[in-house]
Amino acid sequence: MFYYLSQHLLEWSHGTDWESRLSWLRLFRYITVRSAGAAVTALLLSWWFGPRIIRWLKQLKFGQEYQDKAEQAGGLAARVLSKKGTPTMGGILIITILVLTTILWARLDNKLVLLTLLSVLVLAGLGFYDDYAKIIQQSGGGTPPRVKLFAQFAVSIFIGVYLWMTPSTSRLVSEIMVPFYKYAVLTNAAWLGIIICVLAIVGSSNAVNLTDGLDGLAIGCTLIVGFVFLIFTYVAGNAKIAGYLQIPSVPGAGELTVFCSALIGAGLGFLWFNCHPAQVFMGDTGSLPLGGAFGIMAVLVHQPFVLVIAGGVFVLEAVSVILQKGWFRFTRLRTGTGRRIFLMAPLHHHFEKKGWYESQVVMRFYILCVLFAVVALATLKLR
């Protein structure tokens, strides 16, 4: 919105006495300026609306009145405070400000931005429905997993097929890129590209959801991964820099930098209220769309496998759940008694069970996430 308003004013003032006075509006043509504006706007709006959203959620009694699965399992000697009674659905704050700020600062004639916003809104709606179901049931069960997966697969398949059928973006799906290699390893492989697109979006969405179990853990890691994609979207959108680094150049991807900046600003604002002890939880309303956004952006900058590296903490969390469930079922079939690999899954609860304080787990996972982010950024040069 600000971009179009500034350009309209520049056109109006052309050839008049106002032209020199309004020349500073040319700054809005630069992605870097609008990205900085989006980050600051999102942060300030989060600080402003945060307390009001939290009070509103409390008034509606949208709180976690049930014990989470870790507390139900017991054995968390290092957990001082219970999560019970804390307002959930805090993702409303993140997603509302993320979408609003992106609309204010990004160019809305960019199909990549519109596709990302649409997907985020759909996944946020799915997460809201799941959170609401948990509150109504007061058991933490929520929406059946098959319903959530169906909706996630539907969104991701739509994105993959749309990108493939659109001439300007078809190569994002038909050409397969891998980290540390400058050329496509496969071409004319749209079927495989669509599968990778689906796995990236669905996998990332659920991985962030699984990570959202400790105060500040998911949103802090989201901020770190968001910074990685801030760099990747800007580089992919700049043909000169992309050519120098020998990575795929994607016309229009630079506008996603504004989206990433808005995400970082909104995430920092939410972390202000979500850090230990949390005043509000993100819930599926926030975790599902944020994770999905990373999957979508990874596909749109033609680097889907970089997400596996940058989101290494999310991957570890998801893999721990898959291994735990798989090994338990396998050993139960073989021996009649299910066995576990971890004390509890997802992985952050395993370390809680070992006696780590919640703040220790969160901070150490932050450190791991930074290390993964550095490796992901290294793929820009090591080719």
Low-confidence stretches: none
Strand residue content? under 5%
H/E topology pattern: HHHHHHHHHHHHHHHH
N-C termini distance = 38 Å
How many distinct helices?
Answer: 16
Report mean pLDDT, rounded to a whole number.
91
Please describe what this structure looks like.
The protein is mainly α and 383 residues long. The chain has one domain. It has helices at residues 2-13, 31-59, 69-73, 91-105, 111-137, 145-165, 171-174, 190-211, 217-237, 239-245, 256-274, 284-300, 306-310, 312-335, 347-353, 358-378. Helix 6 packs antiparallel against helix 8. The longest helix has 29 residues, at 31-59. It starts with a helix and ends in a 5-residue tail after the last helix. The mean pLDDT is 91.
